[in-house]
Amino acid sequence: MPSLIDRILEGREILQRRPWPRAVVGAHLWRFVANELAQGRLGLLGLWGEPATVHMAIMDEATAEIATVSLDCPDHTYASIGRHHPPALRLERTAQDLFGLSAEGLPDDRSWLDHKCWGVRFPLGDRIDALPKPAPYRFLAAEGDSLHQIAVGPVHAGIIEPGHFRFTASGETVVRLEQRLGYTHKGTEGLMSGASLERAVQLAGRVSGDSTVAYAYAFSRAAEAALELAVPDRAVWLRALLAELERLGNHLGDIGAICNDASFTLIHAHCSVLRENVLRAADRAFGHRLMRDVIVPGGVTCDLTDDGREAIRATLQNIRQRFPQLVELYDNTASLQDRTVDTGVLKPALARQYAAGGFVGRASGRAFDARRTLAYPPYDVLRFEVPVLNEGDVNARVWIRVRELEQSLSLIDQILDRLPEGPLRANAGQFGEPREGMAIVEGFRGDILVWLRLRDGLIERCHLRDPSWFQWPLLEAAIENNIVADFPLCNKSFNCSYSGQDI
Amino acid sequence: MRKLLFESLFRGPFTEPAPSLDDAAVAELATAVGDAGRRRLGRSLSIREVDAGSCNGCELEIHALNNAYYDVERFGLRFVASPRHADVLMVTGPVTKNMRDALARTYHATPDPKWVIAIGDCARDGGCFAGSYAVVGGVSEVIPVDLHISGCPPTPTAMLKGLLALLERADAVAVTS
After folding, report:
1. Interaxial angle between packed helices B57-64 and A265-286, expressed in degrees from 0 to 180 and rounded to the nearest 10
2. Closest residue in B to A158 (Cα–Cα)
3. Helix or strand or coil: residue A263?
4. Percentage of residues in chain A with pLDDT exceeding 70?
5. Which of A103, A399, A414, B54 has the fewest CB atoms within 10 Å around its CB?
6. What does A336-348 look like in DSSP terms, one character per residue?
7. How far is B139 from B148, CA to CA, in rounded Å?
């Protein structure tokens, strides 16, 4: 029996297949896909615009087949997906802001990234002047006796990124949380257009600072797919080493920070030391604490020396020695468990509907991990488990991180043991005709999707989709009926990216 | 927990000696620190961090200043939750147009005397985001900046050097005034 994706693509001209097919569909098929998404038979991986086209990446979760469907919209309108499938809402609002593509029937047509400060509208489409007097942003209403609102941000109390949270509370209990993001919108996709590969990968590595490796990795894989460029073995393995070190450092930071937000600073202090050790080892091994600008299209820029290898080994040994004590402490401290267990519960059905990736999805029963499901090399030959829990609370998101961290330790060991010798980088050829590529890479936070089209060796259009797009809305749901004071804890357990979402 | 605490009693501290002052920072600060600084503040500065559009890389390294290796509080430097409690604003990022107002309002909410430190290459001139329709540019396009610390992101040590230079300078001003 043909799969759902096969049936959607049947009889269509496949424009590009690098590595997944993309086809132009008509309005009828577009609506059919919307319905399949709404029925839960497909998952939404992304939705993005071009000046007169809207693209949607979809996945059949049962078979892990992926495809992109594109709808031409010369009159700048298309049938809304978000109307049937809410995870598309913010993506459609963004396509409206950036390209002026209007989703017909979109239930929420407020601007999302456009805060009316740019001086122009539709900066990536047919630009027009901004409205002289834009209307103020309308927050959603909550009605009932004795409700009050708490407005937080964009400048927060901690050392974190800017965003606005509008709480409506009944006493201490949150009745509704509404997020307003977009404050760190830097127009990265606009800067990408016309950029060389060299500059574009640098920009990709600055979409979300904590995932600089994962973004450069995803971007490079997409560019290599477009150019049909084979990466040397040693570079393939070094990339996974970089990615696992990044995951290790971030998970250590997160576990500590979650405990800190429950006022348990001892674990935070110890995790910060372990995280610092990872960053110092990364610096010794690759010349940069966050391992920025090491992964580039075609390979990596920096080799692992014996000294770097030794630094990483010593750090792993140190973590193996000290981390289990911290896990035991976390598990056996009743006052801490009291804060994290049953707090901020995300129901598995919602995680599935939003195709939520990373620890957010895996703590709520969704087993997707791009390293396993898509098995890009070298993960196809490495041994690791993908931990999954169903509780969906803060505690589950802590445990997923703990288990993933342990898996990363094992993965780094395997990579160091089996690292092949050879060159670090292959050179890209030039192609006259436009070429497209797409890649999905598992960052510490979840799956990062990059789609791009190259023309004459330059980026014509590049879209970078952060996992946070499908996690932020779930935080709004998870916080409901929790107390306001538990918001920082819930927020940290999600640890969504502002800059990655704001792009 | 007792075991963990007990071990910490006998293990040497993680904390490392203070780095030397950053000469470039000392030079930039030569004219920046007002006379009232040291007398009013003592050898202690409260810092408010403001992300005006960064990629979050600088924030990660500012966080690291609080870990046991750098232990920024031993110098009397403390991160506070509100600009109203702050003497120093540490600002990161290319300032986005969507954050320009919030940054200016944060600056005006900070009581005098106050200093602004722009952290990272983007905060100097917009970095690799300069020229975007959504980006204003460096921090000094919006509020006056007293000290720039370069890097993408700057290392915690680089930031510590700059902060210590600010403290030293505040000291020197107090002695001469």
Report:
1. 120
2. B81
3. coil
4. 100
5. A414
6. HHHHHTTSS---H
7. 10
pLDDT digits (tens, 9 = 90+) for A304-324: 999 999 999 999 999 999 999
Average pLDDT over chain A, rounded to an integer: 96
Nearest to A363 by CA among A342, A337, A394, A389: A389
| CA A340 to each of CA A273, A282, A478, B92: distance values in angstroms, whole numbers, following the listed order | 23, 31, 13, 32
Q: Cα separation of A449 and A406, whole Å? A: 25
Please check whether residue A213 is in contact with residue A221, taking contact to mean a CB–CB distance below 8 angstroms. Answer: no
pLDDT of residue B37: 52
Question: Do the Cβ atoms of A187 and B5 come within 8 Å?
Answer: no
Alpha helices in chain B (DSSP H): 2-10, 23-29, 37-41, 57-64, 100-109, 121-125, 156-176
User: Do B59 and A161 count as a contact with CB atoms less than 8 A apart?
Assistant: yes
B5 close to B144: Cβ distance less than 8 angstroms: no
Task: Please provide the distance, in angstroms rounded to a whole number, between the alpha carbons at the two ends of chain A.
Answer: 40
Q: What residue type is B4 in one-letter code?
A: L
Strand (E) or helix (H) holding A98: helix A89-99
- Residue B72 is given by DSSP the state G
At A6, list the tokens. 């096969």
On whether the CB atoms of residues A459 and A231 are closer than 8 A, the answer is: no
CB contact under 8 A, B67 and A269: yes
pLDDT in tens, A319-350: 999 999 999 999 999 999 999 999 999 999 99
Task: Using the structure block, give the residue that is written with the tokens 């930071």.
Answer: A253
The answer, as to whether pTM is greater than 0.90, is: yes
Return d(Cα A124, Cα A191) in angstroms, integer.
10
| In contact, B78 and B108? CB cutoff 8 Å | no
Nearest to B56 among A157, A158, A210 (CB): A210
User: How far apart are alpha carbons A268 and A255 in whole angstroms?
Assistant: 7
User: Whole-angstrom Cα distance, residue A21 to residue A315?
Assistant: 42
Contacts of A483 (CB under 8 A, 6+ apart): A172, A173, A174
Tokens representing residue B113 in the block? 């005397």
Please list the ranges in chain B whose pLDDT falls under 70: 26-43, 170-177
Q: Decide if A106 contacts A79 (C-beta within 8 A).
A: no
Report phi then psi at A216, rounded to 5: -65, -35
